[in-house]
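Review session, final week

We close the course with one last complete record, chosen because it touches almost every idea we covered. It is peptidylprolyl isomerase, a protein from Herrania umbratica with 603 residues. Go through it on your own first, then we will talk.
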Amino acid sequence: MGAEKWKGTNVSDIEGEDDLDEEPGEVIESAPPLEVGEERELGSSGIKKKLLKNGISWETPEFGDEVTVHYVGTLLDGTKFCSTRDNDEPLTFKLGEGLVAKGLDHGIITMKKGECALFTLPPDFGYGAEGRDGLPPDSVMQFEMELLSWITVVDISKDGGIIKKIMEKGERNEWPSDLDEVLVKYQMALVDGTIVAKTPAEGNEFYVKDGRLCSALTKAILTMKRGEKVTLIVQPKYAFGEKGRDAADGFPAVPPNSVLNIELELVSFKSVVDVTGDSKVFKKILKEGEGAIVANEGAAVTISYTARLEDNTVFEKKGVDGKQPLEFITDEEQVIPGLDRAAATMKKGEQALLTISSEYGFGSVVAERDLAVVPPCSNLFYEVEMLDFVKEKAPWELNSQEKIEASGKKKEEGNMLFKSGKYQRAGKKYDKAVDYVSEDGSFRDDEQKLVKALRISCWLNGAACSLKLSDSQGAIELCSKVLDFEFHNVKALYRRAQAYMETSDLVLAELDIKKALEADPQNREVKLLQKTLRQLQVESNKRDAKLFTNMFARMSKDSSVPMKKLKVEKAVHGKSEEVLAMEMECAGDSSAPSEDRMAVDSS
């Protein structure tokens, strides 16, 4: 099929027209498979299928695919009117166009490769009331069909601009992403066959996000699996457009508005992961690890690596050239943050190249390492292999006593981090501690009191971390969990009030402070917080008074308009001068005590 035929193709052309209320193939998929010699109607269309020979595999073509078939068409009395077998020349056509007969396409989408079937088509799905090729009108026809093969056709751009024909399927259900490094082979040609670009025999390697030649190539690569081979028919919009391309690398120029035919193979790709989510630590997987389990946080890992600067200077080696491997526990700040975070994502046996920005390396300080000095603000490159790791046991792997002990240990680790000012890491420790003693009903009655105390203590400490990190909402949520268990817990009320004050929810802050003082009237910290709250309320009242004063000034200015206009406004708003004056007087009065004003607001 030539490129000219695809020009102007749209989605409906690829998918085909479906005049049936339901696709016959859907019924076949939900019904038991046909046995050889068995006949069945496809849906309610009146089309019948009789299986003559089983196919292979389980896949079937779809509308838009290019199928290659042998067929023999006959009437019910056995009269043959068409056949590809007479000259042994199979027919290749696109499903959905009704090239042979409209109903036949609906039958072919139920067939597997190598399958033979006899389809009986009622007149509406055959040649209809007009007839064709000398056949009588309203003829019932039969087609003995063999599906030899098909090529999957995909409209990548959904507008007919990039049509992909899969010539050879790839391996595994994995596709590259924008960050990945791909190795591809391609040949790009004009419609007349002139080659305008071609990779060397070994192919070209590049990062998908960097692109190559034209946008169609990148878009197609993102839809391909390892080892997949395709041909692309690319309209000018996704090729070189109205400008074309000058001659380059020994290949001729691409004229303006040229349609391109591209033969493309995705040889392989290396996955690249944005470890930290901010494009500061990338991991390019050089060799896949074993299984699906990764080290994760808290794992005891053993790694080997070679570490380099941007100028390729090696500044450290571990586990290579006779050096001992490095052992450490992830998420414990025992190595630089970038290496720590990346190691927690690796599988056993995985090899990867890490690109670590200075923020996740040694920062702005000079670092003296084994083989060289690392200058300030240096980006780093680590070629790492995960030799082994032992994951920290998950809560479900422990008995109740072990869970309590693990929770207590995590809590103490959090306390040490909090005292060191490492609030984010401390908060994570408290979260883990709570995970070990979550409400799953696995604790004995005599353990419940201790478990509850651990939960409450960790939530309170976590709230303290959130306040230090200016995460007011996080503090509110953690304190609210405590208050669901102990509604007069003074620490929870105190810290939640602090968080409410940070978010300017002064009414809610006052309620929590009042509850805390009811529970502990002499609590010095709560009284000091109450004093701070009153100062904030005074400042808030002053702002309100200023706002109302400005509103009054604007209203006074507006009252100078002609009397006729004033009367119209009175009629529209329905307010007397007396009512308006009272409203303005109230708005300008800021002499009322703040407690009274708050009481009104809270009601």
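Two points worth writing down before the exam:
The chain has 16 helices and 22 strands.
Residues 273-390 form a domain with the Chitinase A; domain 3 fold (CATH 3.10.50.40).
Good luck, everyone.
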